[in-house]
Specification:
The protein is of the alpha/beta class. It has two domains: 206 residues, Quinone Oxidoreductase, Chain A, domain 1, CATH 3.90.180.10; 123 residues, Rossmann fold. The protein has ten helices and 18 strands. The strands form four sheets. Strands 3, 5, 6, 9, 10, 17 and 18 form a seven-stranded mixed sheet that branches. It has a six-stranded parallel sheet with strand order 13-12-11-14-15-16, with helices on both faces. It has a three-stranded antiparallel sheet with strand order 2-1-4, with no helix packed on it. Helix 3 crosses helix 4.
């Protein structure tokens, strides 16, 4: 651990554009009871970084309100949910044997104890995160991945994108042999969905476009639907019997067009709204066919345990699109917002 009581960090001082990301020298956090101090080796970026910075989440009473993930953000806030690093110190009640171990931090803040708790907050949003040289985490939220064949960058790519993807797949009860539709398939969550659904033995139809189609096919998609064409017609052609499960981070018009393509008892799982949050659909397509629309925010502790098992066995292979030093956080977020890449963008403090 650094002998200095200060560390480099990048924090947001309010909602706004990339200009609100400010490099700062701040005190190294001190691990409290049942906490550890992690020296960050890699921190991955997510759309939630952009939306938290912009205040784009709205509130239940006002869709246009400037808000963080679950309400007002306390400023200044160090962003960054996805951390891989090494434990360098422990607080009271934490095992000293953790010191020196390579870990991934579960970034969720849960409403209750127990394996099936729902997340109600996120590191980097409701508490300080990994855009820094060090971060603290509750001991039950650090997972030892010392022996994983994956790189630090790949491990940092897992928590939010792959955690969200696994949460969607679990909540959608995807079974081997089912036909699954993945929207936004070249993004972080989308690629994770393709990889995990393929590993589960599903037939994967993925929606993507342009130069990204090859990478999506390489990730495991059996068929790629071109977003530039008539999406519903392409889905009907590729899956004349219908879709069992849709794993959707786009929403918007795709929900209206896609719900009638579900089979009897089909499940449409939504974990994002890149295509718009205002959705209209014929409700008869739901109740007459015992279909379900399921909201899915991130993962539960049980889902995250499953994900860390996949990581230790290297059963998923996150794709790293680009890496940046921490002091280029604004450029890294701008690169993310352009959506020209395939895979995850990672920073090195």
């Amino acid at each position: 651990m650094s002998a200095s009581p200060f560390m480099r960090a990048v924090r947001i001082t309010g909602h706004g554009g990339p200009e609100v990301l400010e490099p700062a020298e701040v005190a190294v956090p001190v691990p409290g009871a049942e906490e550890v101090l992690v020296q960050v080796s890699a921190v991955a970026l997510n759309n939630t970084d952009l939306w938290t910075r912009e205040g784009a989440y709205g509130s239940p009473g006002d869709p246009d309100a400037r808000s963080g993930w679950r309400g007002p953000v306390g400023f200044p806030r160090i962003q960054g949910a996805d951390v891989c690093g090494r434990v360098v110190a422990v607080g009271t009640g934490a095992e000293r044997s953790l010191v020196g171990r390579r870990v991934v931090v579960d970034p969720a803040i849960y409403e209750t104890e127990g394996p099936h708790a729902n997340p109600v907050g996120l590191m980097g949003s409701e508490r300080d995160g990994g855009y820094a040289e060090y971060v603290t985490a509750a001991v039950e939220r650090v997972h030892d991945v010392t022996d994983s064949p994956l790189t630090d960058d790949q491990l940092a790519a897992l928590p939010t994108a792959y955690g969200t993807a696994l949460g969607m797949i679990e909540r959608g009860r995807l079974q081997r042999g089912e036909t699954v539709l993945v929207s936004g398939a070249s993004g972080g969550v989308g690629l994770a969905l393709v990889q995990i659904a393929r590993a589960r033995g599903a037939r994967v139809l993925a929606i993507s476009s342009g130069t990204k189609i090859g990478a999506v096919r390489e990730a495991g998609a059996h068929e790629v639907i071109d977003r530039a064409g008539d999406v519903a017609e392409q889905i009907r052609t590729a899956a004349p019997e219908g879709i069992d499960v849709a794993l959707d981070v786009v929403a918007g018009e795709l929900v209206s067009e896609g719900l009638p393509l579900l089979r009897e008892g089909g499940r449409w799982v939504i974990a994002g709204a890149l295509g718009g949050y205002g959705v209209a659909f014929d409700v008869r397509r739901l109740y007459l066919h015992n279909a379900q629309v399921i909201g899915s925010a991130m993962h539960t502790p049980a889902h995250f345990d499953l994900l860390m098992g996949l990581a230790r066995r290297a059963e998923v292979q996150p794709v790293i699109a680009a890496t940046f030093p921490l002091d280029q956080a604004a450029q890294a977020q701008e690169e993310l917002s352009r959506r020209g890449h395939v895979g995850k963008i990672v920073m090195h403090p």
